[in-house]
Amino acid sequence: MAEIGNTEMGIRELREKLSKRLGAAVKGEITYVTSHGVRIAAIVPVVDAEAIEASRGMPPQESAAADS
């Protein structure tokens, strides 16, 4: 799982920086999304999300690019 660097930001800030945070996820960084100072979600690299799904016994998903 990614260990490059983590960022925490509120929903309002995330709206302004979403493209940058998605780019950071591609590079391995995790962005935690907060609401009133409480973590509610995370933007994670796909490899991390797939590892979580595998640990839960979920079948692998095809990428959206394969649907085009």
Report on the architecture of this protein:
- The structure is a single chain.
- The chain has 68 residues and is α+β, with helices and mostly antiparallel strands.
- The protein has one domain (6-60): YefM-like fold, CATH 3.40.1620.
- Helices cover 38% and strands 25% of the residues.
- It has 2 helices and 3 strands; from the N terminus they run βαββα.
- It has a 3-stranded mixed β-sheet, covered by helices on one side.
- It starts with 5 loop residues before the first strand and ends in a 13-residue tail after the last helix.
- The model has no long low-confidence stretch (mean pLDDT 87).
State the gist of this model.
This protein is 38% helix and 25% strand. It is of the alpha+beta class and 68 residues long.
